[in-house]
Amino acid sequence: MNSIKTSFSIRDMENLSGIKAHTIRIWEKRYNLFSPERTDTNIRTYNLESLQKLLNVTLLYNNGYKISKIAKMGEEKIPALVKDIISEKSEKSHALNSLKLAMLNFDQSLFLKTYNDLMEDKSFTQIFNEVFIPLLNELGLLWQTNTISPAHEHFISNLIKQKIYIHTENLQLVAPTKKDEVYVLFLPENEIHELGLLYINYQLALQGYKTIYLGQTMPTESLEDLLKYYNNLRFVSYFTVAPTKDEINDYFERFREVLQKSSGSKLYVLGHQIQEFGEVNPLGPIKIFKSINHLVDSL
User: Fold this and answer.
1) Which of 173, 189, 210 is the last residue of a domain?
2) Which position among 96, 130, 144, 210 has the lowest Cβ density within 10 Å, counted as fewest Cβ atoms?
3) What CATH code is carried by the domain that includes residue 158?
4) Could you give the number of structural domains in the chain?
């Protein structure tokens, strides 16, 4: 299968495991933990089995095992010991490693098995905060360093989206219990990164609120249609790449004009683009939240 990445540079190994390339070389030379192949120009390359072993070794190492002791273990002993020591402390690391491998191999079955194992002991909220968010944060670095391709990122992101859809739909089968506020979730024009917004929609449904999910790249003027049907709306948006930081003030000014047409309506904004943005007038109709948890905790 040509679409599966089976050869990794030492920099890939560092990015995926968190172990410095210098340390990997020492483990390789001193303890013979790995046997990389060499290119014609004498550059190390590692196969998928080496990556799996490194991830397992990393988990043992981070749980107090000396590398000299790990090196003496048989090939079957390391993965067996990894399974034995999985506990509340190490479960997150193990799940992250499994999800990375699922992503690299486009392996939906491994993703589902890892997810279902987590669901036996955790709520979906816990899984998202403790496992999915750290994984998604790592994806940015892995993509920037060419360790993964956009195809890998889309594959794992869409599997996570599927889980959000399922849990949200289950909640929406029951009528909202809080009807004083209606939340309208949308992304601004030219913004297509909706995973964070989808999770906010899930959290609002979990809290019992009515939500209207509009999704990607919504023109500001189109949102005015909602004001004909509802009062006291809470517009929620997530700025990942758009609008740009230079465009945010103008965007807020245009949105204030929309909010003036409805008494009590507000705009809540999150995302990378506004992380360094100063607080908008705290008494005004626009409020910035630093994280999803910050927004959820304010409900």
Assistant:
1) 173
2) 144
3) 1.10.1240
4) 3
Burial 106-117 (b: 16+ CB within 10 A, else e): bbeebbeebbee
Residue that is last in its domain, among 65, 85, 105: 85
**Claim to verify: residue 102 and residue 134 sit in the same structural domain:** yes
Range of the domain at 224: 176-298
Higher pLDDT, 85 or 119: 119
pLDDT digits (tens, 9 = 90+) for 75-103: 778 877 776 665 545 567 778 888 988 88
Is the overall model pTM greater than 0.90, yes or no?
Answer: no
Distance of CA 247 to the CA centre of its chain: 26
Average pLDDT (32-60) is: 84
Q: How far is residue 39's CA from residue 4's CA, in Å, rounded to a whole number?
A: 20
Residue 216, judged by CB atoms within 10 A of its CB (0-12, 13-18, 19+), counts as middle
pLDDT for 143-152, tens place per residue?
A: 555 667 788 8
Give 37-95 as a DSSP string: EE-TT--EEEEHHHHHHHHHHHHHHHTT--HHHHHTS-TTHHHHHHHHH-STTTHHHHH
